[in-house]
Amino acid sequence: MARAAVELVPLGYGKFVRADRVFALVPLEGDERGDGRRTLVHVEGIEQPLVASRSEGAIARDVAVALGQRPATGRAERDRICGQEQLF
Question: Does residue 48 lie within any of the structural domains?
């Protein structure tokens, strides 16, 4: 039986990952950030995190949409995802 296709999520600069394999997003701050480095993306099956040029909020929204979850709406809650508690 064929599996349903899983959407790919863009990380920027031509990098894509399967939405169902992303398990952590870590924003880069300070000296770590710059030159297209904004977020570390931890992907199941890949030992080292991938460096993304997109923000963790943008990637999280794309993952939520790809997995069929509806992201929260409204300007104040644009970075929140339904069913996910804010850590910071």
Answer: yes
DSSP code of residue 37: B
Helix (H, G, I), strand (E, B) or coil at 31: helix
Residue 86 CA to residue 88 CA, distance in Å, equals 6
- pTM value is 0.75
Range of the domain at 18: 8-66
Query: Which one, of 81, 80, 62, lies nearest residue 52 by Cα?
Result: 62
- Domains held by the chain: number: 1
Tokens of 39: 């977020």
Q: Which amino acid is at 55?
A: S
The length of the chain, given as a count of residues: 88
Query: Each residue of 17-34: pLDDT tens digit?
Result: 999 999 999 999 999 998
